[in-house]
Design goal:
By secondary structure, the chain is an alpha/beta fold. It contains 14 helices and seven strands. The chain has two domains: 81 residues, Orthogonal Bundle (DNA polymerase, domain 1), CATH 1.10.150; 244 residues, Metal-dependent hydrolases (TIM Barrel), CATH 3.20.20. The chain is 42% helix and 9% strand. The relative contact order is 0.13.
Length: 346
């Protein structure tokens, strides 16, 4: 399954959120997405009686968070219709990329996802239920660690709070597996930006460099290897840090001794992430081929910060398939128990 099921007639919240999903999937402007998600939140907070009253009085445009376009969507959905704008987006929906379907069918989960706990745009529960509805068997929440203050990274206390929330959510969504993870910053000395004891409680640890990306090759190589040899590290996230397009502009890849880094990944059982975000597509093809030739394993992840971005996984799947990567070398094609045993023994 790679598409969300249509919301039931008469459900304006689901209709608004599907519009948000489709806009995110097509990489629309953030402010447009936020308008539909804000309206969904406003309607979700209402009682059935309040919804009926606004529908009867044609007063949706008086509700805080609801504008003219979202009011039309709500009114049409409440009348039992498929909102015209939603139908327009459905009709315009096309595959994001040609190919990759074989690898995507083999993938069972996503190991790099963000929520409003850090710099994501949607709640943890919505990210997980969307992953489930897209056909995943499991998904890891990997919000940022404390050093990344611009992304509202999680302190140890907040991460412990999230663990409790995740456990409760996992119980409700079973048999879908909600995995507790983190995208932990790789510090300048190669250490990880969280306590070892707390990292040991997590299902999966993605370690990434987010600062001083223009360091010289020797410095960056030592820094990355320091994190890779840490037994808590499971996945090396977006290894070059490059940006090739998008609102944030472009950024050249970091320089490091790729043979040394990938040999460390192979030796210490750390997966090289194939980051599927269109503006990253990291690592570049030449480094991805090198990591394949050196015997590394991989994780094809979305690095999603919104529900619609969970479909970006097909970009990474297409790249992996084009280069002939065996699906069994992709750790998130594995059954969850095999994955967790591998992560725990890393």
């Amino acid at each position: 399954m790679s598409e969300l099921e249509a919301p039931p007639p008469g459900d304006p919240v689901a209709a608004l959120r599907e519009i948000g999903f489709l806009l995110e999937r097509s990489r629309s402007d953030t402010f447009r997405v936020k308008a539909y998600r804000a309206a969904a939140d406003a309607v979700a907070a209402m009682t059935a009686q309040q919804r009926t009253a606004h529908q009867t009085a044609h007063s949706w445009n008086t509700v805080t968070g609801v504008g003219p376009k979202t009011a039309t969507v709500i009114s049409q959905a409440m009348a039992g219709e498929v909102p015209a704008y939603l139908q327009q987006l459905r009709d315009a929906r096309e595959p994001l990329v040609e190919g990759g379907l074989g690898m995507r069918a083999a993938v069972r989960g996503d190991l790099h996802v963000h929520s409003t706990w850090s710099d994501g745009g949607s709640p943890l529960e919505e990210m997980m239920t969307t992953a489930r509805d897209l056909g995943h068997e499991y998904c890891a929440i990997t919000d940022h660690s404390p050093r990344l203050k611009v992304a509202h990274g999680l302190t140890a206390e907040r991460l412990r709070e999230q663990i409790e929330v995740t456990r409760e959510l996992a119980a409700r969504l079973a048999p879908f597996r909600v995995l507790q993870g983190i995208e932990v910053d790789i510090l300048e000395d190669g250490g990880l930006d969280q306590t070892d004891a707390l990292l040991a409680e997590l299902d999966v640890v993605v370690a990434s460099v987010h600062s001083k990306l223009r360091s010289d090759s020797e410095t960056m190589t030592h820094r990355m290897v320091g994190a890779i040899v840490n037994p808590r590290t499971n996945v090396l996230g977006h290894c070059t840090g490059r940006l090739i397009e998008g609102d944030r502009g472009t950024r050249p890849p970091s320089v490091f001794d790729a043979e040394v880094v990938f040999e460390a990944c192979r030796t210490f059982n750390v997966a090289v992430e194939i980051n599927s975000r269109p503006e990253r597509r990291d690592p570049p093809d030449e480094l991805l081929r090198l990591a394949m030739d050196m015997g590394c394993v991989f994780s094809i992840d979305t690095d999603a910060h919104a529900p619609g971005q969970l479909e970006f996984q097909i970009y990474g799947c297409a790249r992996a398939e084009d280069l002939g990567l065996d699906a069994d070398r992709v750790i998130n094609t594995w059954p969850v128990e095999r994955l967790l045993a591998w992560c725990g023994g890393g």
